[in-house]
UniProtKB/TrEMBL annotation:
The Q motif is unique to and characteristic of the DEAD box family of RNA helicases and controls ATP binding and hydrolysis. Residues 581-607 are annotated as: Disordered. This is ATP-dependent RNA helicase. The keyword Nucleotide-binding applies. It comes from the Eukaryota. It catalyses: ATP + H2O = ADP + phosphate + H(+). Residues 32-61 form the DEAD-box RNA helicase Q domain. Belongs to the DEAD box helicase family. DDX31/DBP7 subfamily. GO terms for molecular function: ATP binding; ATP hydrolysis activity; RNA binding; RNA helicase activity. Transmembrane segments: none annotated. Keywords: ATP-binding, Helicase, Hydrolase, Nucleotide-binding, RNA-binding. The keyword Electron transport does not apply.
Length: 607
């Protein structure tokens, strides 16, 4: 039965591949085989037959041979291009090749650091699949939210390849004496920039201190194939957006790194592998480490690589109409296609909760006179939520649940922005803007993966429209989404739409639905509380936009009454404003007492 399911999913993968045009195929996939890259035949066969990967992706073809050679590597490639296999396949290949089989008592050989729990589980699951034929290599994970005692027991038994989140790893390095890492040979930083953005910089430095960051020159080929002993360390950094934040980490962890994918535009997809490597990898050949830092810094303002078949749009929506427009677009999208998988990004955990419960509980009919029992949910699809304040098991269930649904909606914070590989996501809606352009790139990267089609929609208020220039500076350009056309498409009971209305706020459909939502929220104490909490945390997150972005996302320009409307609140804005001011005062007082760490600052925005 399981075999049957597996072959079905592989057939699906192959069908998807054949739907992709030849041009896209050549852009994404290399014209060589996994065997050509020097990987063990058993591993290649497994990749092909059991995982359905017929040929390597371009980035895999470029990077895998370099990783096998034992060099430190910095990989920069678009989202969804198969970076996980870039590091897992060579590590498995090299570990299985030891003269004497490694044993659990040898401890950990490879450590993969990831920023979130979901990504930790995802990488672990791929690793498990990859190790199918190499049962003596043991995969494992440790991460926040898990039972420390059980993790200790697993570490004591020995984990050959360990996937971890930084905080929990440091915890075990400090407190688990049975954790053997003397044979550590590989350190991988997946989504390196995000680990730093989340404020884990200090933890990373401590981790590197524990493990001894730059031990010896990692290009010592004699080590390869030997049973571990006095071995050198190979460090790998990967992300779709490498920027100056990574400089420091590169500085303290990489030796003469080979840069892969930093100059992708020059790469011709028809070139055989050796030539691709020649053009697209940059080896910092000087003895001075500062050379590699310069390469990174000069790329910080470069264009980002975006998925080839991604359609990007923005919706210009006045603040007070945001909620209605979001609901209307979601309804339109779900009614247009039988299977839609949509991810909506919001800025705070409270905002996720509010919208989740509102979408789940709000009953509606175009005719206001309809009996309550005949009213239906506004959007007929399964809705999930994901944020960092959720219980660990709920987070896991959401992730798995959304993954397995054919048609569903996920409301989430940026906890889902990085690395998550969810099949068949058709549309990304950034209801709250992402902040730095790199975050935009990662959020939209949850769709249009590996050459598939996908759409992305960014909500902007008229006062925020300059954000488009910021994106443009990174080569990201968006077309306007026809908001009014969508609003016009909704029938109004006993009313006609009037054309040429001055503003979206006056649109009869907007007025009608806003009233219905406000009525529903006002009547439900739970919803009212959720809305108020969401309002307060949303404004706080808005004030937390960093550096240059403050000139675009100016809290002073916000009309708090309109913000309240966007949470379905008809209370006097001053009332809501006062409660916010009280919270702000309290926060200021707390801040005076405890000087905030960088980490806390980040946690204002969603986790
Ligand atoms: N050679 C291949 N052939 C077909 N599918 C592949 C291949 N390599 C990876 N994949 C699939 O491509 C998808 C994207 O891979 P992965 O998540 O590693 O991308 P990524 O580049 O790390 O993305 P992100 O930057 O978002 O983390 C996964 O579903 C993976 O199973």
């Amino acid at each position: 039965m399981r075999e049957h399911q597996k072959s079905n999913s592989m057939e699906e993968k192959n069908k998807t591949k054949s739907k992709i045009s030849n041009a896209t195929q050549a852009e994404i996939f290399a014209s060589c085989s996994f065997n050509d890259l020097g990987l063990h035949p058993n591993l290649c066969q497994h990749l092909q037959e059991k995982m359905g990967f017929q040929v390597p992706t371009q980035i895999q073809a470029q990077a895998i041979p370099v990783v096998i050679e034992g060099k430190d590597v910095l990989v920069n490639a678009a989202t969804g291009t198969g970076k996980t296999i870039v590091y897992l396949a060579p590590i498995v290949h090299l570990l299985q090749a030891y003269d004497q089989r490694i044993q659990r008592s040898d401890g950990t050989f490879a450590l993969v650091l990831v920023p979130t729990r979901e990504l930790c589980m995802q990488v672990y699951e791929i690793l498990q699949k990859l190790l199918h034929r190499f049962h003596w290599i043991v995969p494992g994970y440790i991460m926040g939210g898990e039972n420390r005692g059980k993790e200790k027991a697993r570490l004591r038994k020995g984990i050959s390849i360990l996937v971890a989140t930084p905080g929990r790893l440091l915890d075990h390095l400090k407190n688990t004496s049975s954790f053997v890492y003397t044979n550590l040979r590989w350190m991988v930083f997946d989504e390196a920039d995000r680990i730093l953005e989340l404020g884990f910089g200090k933890e990373l430095e401590e981790i590197l201190e524990f493990l001894g960051s730059k031990k010896t020159d990692s290009t010592n080929k004699e080590d390869i194939g030997k049973k571990p002993g006095n071995i050198s360390r190979q460090n790998l950094l990967l992300s779709a957006t490498l920027n100056e934040k990574v400089n420091h980490l590169a500085n303290i962890s990489l030796i003469k790194p080979v840069m892969i994918g930093l100059d992708e535009k020059k790469v011709s997809s028809d070139l055989p592998i050796p030539s691709i490597r020649k053009f697209s990898t940059t080896e910092s050949d000087g003895d001075e480490e500062s050379e590699s830092i310069q390469v990174l810094a000069s790329h910080s303002t470069d264009n980002y690589n975006l998925p080839t078949r991604l359609i990007q749009k923005y919706a210009k929506v006045p603040c007070g109409s945001r909620l209605v427009v979001l609901f209307s677009i979601l309804k339109t999208l779900f009614e247009k296609e039988v299977s839609q998988k949509i991810v909506v990004f919001l800025s705070t955990c409270d905002a996720v909760d509010f919208h989740y419960f509102l979408l789940s509980e709000f009953r509606w009919s175009p005719n206001p006179q309809t009996d309550i029992n005949q009213k239906q949910t506004f959007i007929k699809c399964k809705t999930f939520r994901l944020h960092g304040n959720m219980d660990h098991d709920d987070r896991r269930a959401t992730f798995q649940g959304f993954k397995s649904e054919k048609s569903a909606l996920l409301l989430c914070t940026d906890v889902a922005a990085r690395g998550l590989d969810i099949p068949k996501v058709t549309c990304i809606i950034q209801y709250d803007s992402p902040g730095e352009a790199s975050e935009y790139v990662h959020r939209v990267g949850r769709t249009a993966r590996l050459g598939e089609k996908g759409e992305a929609l960014l909500f902007l208020q008229p006062i925020e429209i300059d954000y488009l220039h910021d994106l443009q500076q990174h080569g990201v350009s968006l077309k306007e989404y026809p908001v009014e056309k969508v609003l016009d498409s909704f029938p109004l009971h006993g009313q006609r739409h009037h054309k040429n209305l001055a503003t979206i706020e006056m649109h009869p459909w907007v007025v009608f639905l806003q009233r219905a939502l406000e009525g529903f929220i006002a009547a439900e104490a739970k919803m009212k509380t959720l809305a108020k909490n969401a309002f307060c945390s949303w404004v706080r997150a808005y004030t937390a936009h960093k550096g240059d972005l403050k000139r675009i996302f100016m809290v002073k320009k916000l009309h708090l009454g309109h913000v309240a409307r966007s949470f379905g609140l008809k209370d006097q804005p001053s009332l809501v404003g006062r409660s916010f001011q009280m919270q702000a005062k309290k926060r200021k007082k707390d801040q005076r007492q405890v000087k905030p760490s960088k980490r806390r600052k980040f946690s204002t925005k969603a986790k």
